[in-house]
Amino acid sequence: MNKLLSNILFSCFLALFAITGNAQNIVIQTQSTSLALRVNNNKQLQQLYFGNRFSDTSAYSSFNMARTPAFPTAGINYNNEPAMQVQHADGNISLQLNYVDHSIEKPNDDVTITHINLKDPVYPFYVTLNFAAYNKENIIEEWTSIHHEEKVPVTLMRYASSFISLNDNNFYLTHFYGDWASEMQFEETKLPGGIFNIQSKLGTRATNSELPSFMLSPGEPAQENEGDVFAGSLAWSGNFNLQFENIQYGRSGGSLKIIPGINAYASNYLLKPKETFNTPHFIFTYTSNGRGQASRNLHAWALKYGVWNGYQTRQTLLNNWEATYFNFTQDTLVNLFDGAKKIGVDLFLLDDGWFGNNHPRHADTAGLGDWQANKKILPDGIGYLVKNAEAKGIHFGIWIEPEMVNPKSDLYEQHPDWILKLPNRPEDLSRNQLVLDLTNPKVQDFVYGVLHNLLTENPGIAYIKWDCNRPMTNAYSQYLGANQQALYVDYANGLYNVLQRVRKEFPKLEMMLCSGGGGRAEYGALKYFNEFWASDNTDAVERIFMQWGYTYFFPAATICAHVTNWGKQSLKYKIDVAMQGKLGFDIKVNDLSDKEITFCKTAVDNYKRLQSVINYGSLYRLIAPYNNSAASLMFVDSTKQKAVVFAYNMYTKMGDQFQNIKMNGLDAAKQYVVKEINLEDDNRPAFRQSGKTFSGEFLMNEGLNWYLRGSLQSSILELTEVN
Fold first, then answer.
1. Which residues belong to the signal peptide in this entry (predicted)?
2. Which residues pair with 39 in a beta bridge?
């Protein structure tokens, strides 16, 4: 019996209620996980159980989680943090939700969707709790649908996506915080009694300071490969709040209420009669096999359901930003195409600075909003660059920031009513720019038009880097007028409206979600993007930590990792770090020696050959970087015939002792040849046993002795089954 299950049993004595009459159970389950709900005799929906699945669903009738409501509301008889709070048309701020009925649909063999319909017995106010259970991936996705038939709008003040209860004495929360260039700072904390919030009020680039993702361990801290773990992620590109209300019952234990959803800050939503509001989706999983299995569950779900074309082969690329910044010409760029070809990447990406005529984009002070090629810099237009890239055997991609505007732009001068800014306050510029008002359908049309025009006029464009370089401040929409209270919510939904149109027209286009670094690392926008930019900080040692942190929630295929001039590490070290994500380059190829160019080309070839394993294989984190000077992780393909192991020394000290690299995910009965790749000298592998064959049993139980010596050393091992 797992610890979470035993704690739920322990809680039963707190408040038992009768299981008689018309009480019925509703069970949402995957291969390994179950969420059991009950409708009691008073038509109230309650949570019975959440944890490992029972083969016999009747077993859930034995559980009672202390009269735990499944979706508590404010104003009646619940005194803690509610999942929903509203104000009715008559001013009444109470809400009661009684069970009406439920239905089940099955879109395919893997997915079961349960809809539970609830209604206020006094008001024509309706809520549907929706649960999509992904059987093979062991993921549950929950969201709330809200509508009413009152005569005038009802104000939604709190409207959570989910409400999950766990019972235990202690709870340990793993989350990630940071800022620009210092994203993904790891923290595991024991939750105190009371309320702990992970939240954002940034509007745009909402994940700049905190991710809307977490891992939670009841009882004791979880390990990588063992221990109970509840992992969750809110798919929302705006202000969010993950609330953890830890209610303590003295020495008898406690109950944790997990309440993820849109941040109630400045987000009162006026719901019109017969309008339906759908909350963001909350994706969660439970396992008794540690953080690693929770991550693999999320990765499997994301690649199949959560990311646009998750299994689409990603293009390696060369970006011009660090080579030129804003200082380039048409001929400069065409010459850089040769560098992309030399190192073997698929695509050349033109970054910021290519647009604006009346207000040319020579710095970040002008041009945003005027998305026409600068005629002086690019006299023959973007199409000329696309054709020249294709002539050299590479694809062409381009940077845009379509949600933003500089005061020095034609757009700003022509449409001041399209800009979010308070009418009676000074403009609050950040990076010399303001945010366009995506609550306005005309602005949505404009932003969509930027993409439509660029891609239809230049159909060879194969990649878009979509950036967003500032949060929302002093925000006011002329379009919304007096109804400003839901501006942040309407903005995010306006962005989604644009992205839906873009994806309908350009389904195969590869797009990177960038936001001044890792400001949009969440599944709400990734529904429309293939990948995201992890951080503007590309120092390879810093990236080991950042990329490690992102792997808790996102598959490697989504984490863009570039080789750049940042950091003092060797070229090999930088490439070895970048290869554990979606590989790209942002370097001056002309400054490289012939030997370095050859090394880059070999590494790119290795990456392409192994990309399906790295990007889509099962991830196993072997040695975490947080408490020592080394790190190692590996990817294993679905057949367990091929694996790739990454190993890094960071800043080591004399006397450091390193543990063996005990691998995971292999077939114990198989034999694997272990070969080191990305070698600067084929005759001097760091792994002196390169080419030797080992059993899967040995590699997982004994492992390889740590073989890297000295600071800033790296190695990649390729494992291949021996037939």
1. 1-23
2. 24, 45
Together in a domain, 585 and 680 = no
- Phi, psi angle pair for 255, to nearest 5°: -135, 125
Tell me, yes or no, whether 451 lies in a domain: yes
Per the listing, tokens 């992904």 go with 134
Alpha-carbon span 394 to 592, nearest angstrom: 20
Q: 288 and 429 share a domain? A: no
At 647, give phi and psi (nearest 5°): -135, 140
Q: Which of 120, 228, 437, 536 is catalytic?
A: 536
- Tens of pLDDT along 442-473? 999 999 999 999 999 999 999 999 999 999 99
β partners of residue 85: 158
Catalytic residue among 168, 370, 467, 637: 467
Residues 200 and 57 in one domain: yes
Least confident stretch, 13-17, 517-521, 656-660: 13-17
If one counts the domains in the chain, the total is 3
Geometric angle at alpha carbon 166, from 164 and 169, rounded to 5°: 155
- pLDDT, tens digit, for every residue of 562-603? 999 999 999 999 999 999 999 999 999 999 999 999 999 999
Residues 6+ apart with CB under 8 A from 229: 215, 216, 217, 222, 286, 287, 288, 289, 290, 291, 293, 294
The answer as to whether 311 is a domain residue is no
- CATH number for 625: 2.60.40.1180
Q: Is residue 430 a contact partner of residue 204, using CB atoms and an 8 Å limit?
A: no
Q: Are residues 145 and 242 in the same domain?
A: yes
**Six token digits for residue 199:** 């939240």
pLDDT tens-digit profile of 209-225?
Answer: 999 999 999 999 989 99
| Claim to verify: residue 299 and residue 322 sit in the same structural domain | no
List all residues 6 or more positions away from 704 whose beta carbon is below 8 Å from its beta carbon: 660, 661, 663, 674, 687, 689, 694
Token pair of 415 as six digits: 């449409």
Find the domain containing 29 and state its range: 3-306
Residue 359 · residue 367 · CB < 8 Å = yes
Is the same domain home to 569 and 682? no
Task: Respond yes or no: is residue 536 known to be catalytic.
Answer: yes
Q: Is the dihedral of CA 606, 610, 612, 617 positive or negative?
A: negative
443: CB partners within 8 A, 6+ apart? 418, 436, 437, 479, 494
Percent helix, strand, coil in the chain (nearest 5)?
25, 30, 45
Residues tagged in the binding site annotation for substrate: 180, 351-352, 431, 465-469, 514, 536
Annotated binding site: 180, 351-352, 431, 465-469, 514, 536
Give the end of a domain, one of 306, 327, 345.
306
Within 13 Å of residue 599, how many CA atoms lie on the same side as its CB? 19
Decide which of 596, 616, 636 is a domain's last residue. Answer: 616
313 located within any domain: no
> For residue 171, is it within any domain?
yes
Residue 84 pLDDT greater than 70, yes or no: yes
